[in-house]
Amino acid sequence: GQQVQQSPASLVLQEGENAELQCNFSTSLNSMQWFYQRPEGSLVSLFYNPSGTKQSGRLTSTTVIKERRSSLHISSSQITDSGTYLCAMDNTGANTGKLTFGHGTILRVHP
Amino acid sequence: EAAVTQSPRSKVAVTGGKVTLSCHQTNNHDYMYWYRQDTGHGLRLIHYSYVADSTEKGDIPDGYKASRPSQENFSLILELASLSQTAVYFCASSGLNSGNTLYFGEGSRLIVV
After folding, report:
1. What's the rounded Cα separation, in Å, for the pair B33 and B57?
2. Which of chain B's termini has less CB crowding within 10 Å, N or C?
3. B38 reaches A (C-beta below 8 A)
4. What is the DSSP string of B1-52?
5. Mean pLDDT, chain B, integer
6. Is B1 part of the contact surface with chain A (CB cutoff 8 Å)?
7. What is the pLDDT of residues A36-77, one digit of tens each?
8. Does B54 touch chain A (CB under 8 A)?
């Protein structure tokens, strides 16, 4: 079965609305990361978040390791937030970039 | 700014031909990776390397070889390209000096015909 489950698979927002993206893991993990994939395909790291809450601008990531879940909150969404959000886990114990990715949440923000 | 560059950015290859995808990083990172992305499968790890002159198999290594001749360079080699290897390939690097965050290249789109 899939080790990293992301929900929702897709999401449509009106500009200014908030969004909550979820990531659930079927196995224990050491750390996780959130990435943003631009519509043209390039990937950008958003958060390396092994546990707890981290914030960067309008983005907030919260990871609860013992519950095997992480969330990404986007506040006051903008059109430029459109793209795919990917979460990935490291369960190797070595804290490297050997990640298992979810399939992503496709976000579309309309004016 | 961390930088990972890939070449070529796109390529059309013939079934049975040899394809080499190259990756260069200027991050001074020890770790480098090759991932492949397919619609419906997310990203999957093919090969990775912790140090020059050494490579390791990832989750889907069959049909691929890797080469790490120096800390900065990491290549992915398809000796006999097949239709099923049509995908977008991403190189990435990470290191303790950047908190183990993955830095990705722009991706290489490979179409095998």
Report:
1. 10
2. N
3. no
4. ---EEEE-SEEEE-TT--EEEEEEE-S--SEEEEEEEETTTEEEEEEEEEET
5. 93
6. no
7. 999 999 999 999 888 899 999 999 999 998 899 999 999 999
8. no
